[in-house]
């Protein structure tokens, strides 16, 4: 499998673990605020390594790293993902999967096979503004609802998170998200940060005070909700 990026050490991406992060290309969303534009729209950068090189790297890091984060793009689009995760598991690492929630059945299968220990799902916005925020006009939200319901069932350890962008999110967004994710185990609001690699220019973060207001709104339904830096 082509691997488009490897961050060899992260203390932030996998809660409670010393980990590395593996980036896979391809995504079925076009979030205007996406930081990984070249992994979404292509042309993809040349692969940094293949799965065999990744496994060789991990063999050398046994005892130094606890976990591996697999992100994208959307990793669940890759048909050979289960095989890669199984090989990483065999080496004794915990696995965290980042997903946009578009493939609930693939997610469920990985969990049932014991190939994922922690899932971080992006919740882009309230249902009313989801398609616009994901950059996919007419998006069918059914798989997103299914993924949210599955994670809320506590089948696997998880978090939800929303990247908050002034052009897409307001108080109504967070009232609706709070109702939708009520009682979630973990929910993080992270402020949009502009970068050269963002898919669409001209987007802005909200100020700190407004982020606190949004947090207070969701905390009435999700007491565990927190702000997270990026
Ligand atoms: S933010 Fe995530 S879901 Fe959205 S386009 Fe980028 S990789 Fe895909």
How would you describe this structure to a colleague?
The chain has a single domain (2-228), classed as TIM Barrel (Alpha-Beta Barrel), CATH 3.20.20. 37% of the residues are buried. The protein contains eight helices and ten strands. The strands form two sheets. Strands 2-3-5-6-7-8-9-10 form an eight-stranded mixed sheet. It has a two-stranded antiparallel sheet with strand order 1-4. It is α/β, with parallel strands linked by helices and 230 residues long. Helix 7 (171-180) links the parallel strand 8 (157-164) and strand 9. It has helices at 37-40, 51-61, 81-90, 104-112, 130-134, 142-152, 171-180, 208-219; strands spanning 2-3, 5-10, 19-23, 49-50, 67-71, 94-99, 118-122, 157-164, 187-191, 226-228. 31% of the residues lie in helices and 20% in strands. It binds iron/sulfur cluster. Iron/sulfur cluster binds at residues 27, 29-31, 34, 36, 40, 72-74, 100, 122.
Layout of SSEs?
Blueprint: E1 2-3, E2 5-10, E3 19-23, H1 37-40, E4 49-50, H2 51-61, E5 67-71, H3 81-90, E6 94-99, H4 104-112, E7 118-122, H5 130-134, H6 142-152, E8 157-164, H7 171-180, E9 187-191, H8 208-219, E10 226-228
The structure holds iron/sulfur cluster (SF4).
Annotated CATH homologous superfamily: Aldolase class I
Radius of gyration: 17 Å
Distance between the termini: 29 Å
Counted by DSSP, the helix tally is 8
In short:
It is built from 8 helices and 10 strands. The protein has helices spanning 37-40, 51-61, 81-90, 104-112, 130-134, 142-152, 171-180, 208-219, and strands spanning 2-3, 5-10, 19-23, 49-50, 67-71, 94-99, 118-122, 157-164, 187-191, 226-228.
């Amino acid at each position: 499998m082509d691997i488009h990026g490897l961050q060899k050490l992260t203390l932030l991406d996998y809660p409670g673990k010393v980990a590395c992060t593996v980036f896979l290309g391809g995504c079925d969303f076009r979030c205007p605020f996406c930081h990984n534009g070249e992994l979404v729209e292509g042309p993809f950068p040349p692969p940094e390594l293949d799965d065999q090189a990744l496994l060789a790297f991990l063999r050398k890091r046994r005892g130094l790293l606890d976990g591996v984060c697999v992100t994208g793009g959307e990793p669940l689009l890759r048909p050979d993902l289960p095989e890669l995760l199984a090989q990483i598991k065999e080496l004794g690492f915990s696995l965290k999967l980042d997903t946009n929630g578009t493939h609930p059945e693939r997610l469920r299968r990985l969990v049932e096979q014991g190939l994922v220990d922690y899932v971080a799902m992006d919740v882009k916005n309230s249902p009313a503004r989801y398609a616009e925020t994901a950059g996919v006009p007419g998006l069918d939200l059914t798989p997103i609802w299914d993924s949210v319901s599955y994670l809320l069932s506590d089948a696997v350890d998880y978090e939800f998170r929303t990247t908050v962008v002034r052009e897409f999110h307001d108080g109504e967004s967070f009232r609706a998200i709070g109702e939708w994710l009520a009682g979630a185990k973990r929910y993080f609001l992270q402020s949009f940060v502009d970068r050269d690699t963002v898919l669409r220019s001209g987007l802005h973060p909200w100020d700190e005070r407004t982020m606190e207001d949004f947090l207070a709104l969701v905390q009435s339904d999700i007491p565990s909700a927190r702000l997270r830096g990026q």
